[in-house]
Amino acid sequence: MKIGIYGGTFNPPHLGHVTAARAAAELLKLDQLLLIPAGLPPHKDLPAGSPTPDQRLEMTRLAADQTGLAGRVGVLDLEVHREGKSYTSDTLKDLKARYPDDELWLLMGTDMFLTLQAWHAPEEILSLAGIAAFGRTEADTEELFAHQRDYLYKTYPQARIFTMTIPGVVDVSSTELREQLAKGGGGHLLPPAVYGYILRNGLYGTHADLKRLPFSQLRPVALSYLKYQRIPHVLGTEQEAIRLAERYGADVEKARVAALLHDCTKKLNMEQQLELCGRYGISLDELEQKALKLLHAKTGAAVARDVFGVDADVYSAIWWHTTGHGNMTLLEKIIYLADYIEPSRDFPGVDKLRRVCYKDLDEGLLLGLEMTIQEMTDMGNPVHRATIEARDALKR
Ligand code: ATP
Prior knowledge:
The chain is α/β, with parallel strands linked by helices. The protein contains 18 helices and 6 strands. The chain has 3 domains: 2-165, Rossmann fold (3-Layer(aba) Sandwich), CATH 3.40.50; 174-223, no CATH class; 238-395, Hypothetical protein af1432, CATH 1.10.3210.10.
């Protein structure tokens, strides 16, 4: 197996890192890519007020997710939790012990490649892993690499070196980004979920008021709660909710907020869901106690109100978005259906359901509820009584 190892301070991880990681994984045909945030970087001091190592770890996880290399990319916490300086030679020894039969490739940008001989134990590094170096800017051409490559080959005969030019390289550094973030900019140079995480936690001098976020910030913040695969669904739900709200004269802003936040606790497991239910005093019926899918609507509504200060209309639209209920408001219907028919949904009957929803909202809702009840029954799953009540109310 070919394993890429990409270390860095990742303070914060930015689009330069993500683009380089993705391109290197393709060019080197890596089976696996490991991102490893440094605990105490040997090459640079962490500026005062930097996020905690665990926050850098979490941001790196979000950035890894956004490489789109699902299943092939992972983040390791071995440097973050190691005492003392995070020497790459120690990390490589550790990884060699974990993967004795695999080929290790150490990924790095120009600045790191050009100073490799000055790192701690370069000989050991070069004996344990091949070096894969890439340019950080368009100006970092092959000529720049060639001189250093020759030098390393002469000095360390065991060296294996691969240099590459990355298409669409993003010329940005974490240092510049930290300055931009403190001045209210920089979001466009970060993976959206990382930007959202930074805003959510007030990192790097950002002071976003989470209860009054403009959509340009609410969107990345909402994405920072999601698994990568769920992002198209939530963005699709936002678009569908806008369209339905315009079509039926609902409050478009509220529809957007509810759509963006409706799945904000979806990635949590049962234990985490139950912890939130305890924290927010959410009582559960017998079915809900067992059905993870039903819990996220309730905990999502509670988080949306507590953290983002959403009003009662948005709160209840998120609360009822999975089951529906017997007396639904216009906004509740819109979020229920936007979630159901948004453009990335693909299941038998979705086109018909879309057509009916834009012809008559209640007819669409009835059809959606009936399809859900049928599907659950076919799968032998119990149907929540609120869903039955919603259908029966519409039939009447
Ligand atoms: P700082 O500005 O704090 O020095 P940085 O942007 O260089 O940070 P690091 O986390 O120190 O980020 O970098 C980790 C690795 O990513 C290094 O090998 C570095 O060369 C590489 N790298 C950093 N920025 C880019 C970029 N824009 N494109 C490609 N590689 C990059």
